[in-house]
Design a protein that fits this description.
Blueprint (H helix, E strand, L loop, with lengths): L2 H9 L2 H29 L11 H17 L11
Length: 81
């Protein structure tokens, strides 16, 4: 088989390139729809803080203390001497 015939076999089909690009775009569109569908079912992560700032650390600490007090486990009880 000569180089010319190999080149023609491989590159004489421009539609395969378009088909590949169309499949690639279709894949990413489906992936995006899948993510949006999951967000609708589970909910987005926008409500949760992504960084530990002093305000979020304090809020988590207060939430932990409220949970402990509700269940009768107060870590901050003063011990009588």
């Amino acid at each position: 088989m000569s180089m010319d015939s190999r080149w023609r076999q491989r590159y004489d089909r421009p539609m395969t390139d378009l088909l590949f690009v169309a499949m690639l775009v279709g894949f990413f569109l489906l992936a995006g729809l899948f993510v949006r569908g999951c967000d609708r079912i589970v909910g987005t992560d926008e409500e949760t803080p992504t960084a530990s700032t002093p305000a979020t650390i304090e809020a988590e600490h207060n939430e932990h203390n409220e949970h402990a007090e509700h269940h009768g486990h107060n870590e901050h009880k003063e011990v009588a001497a």
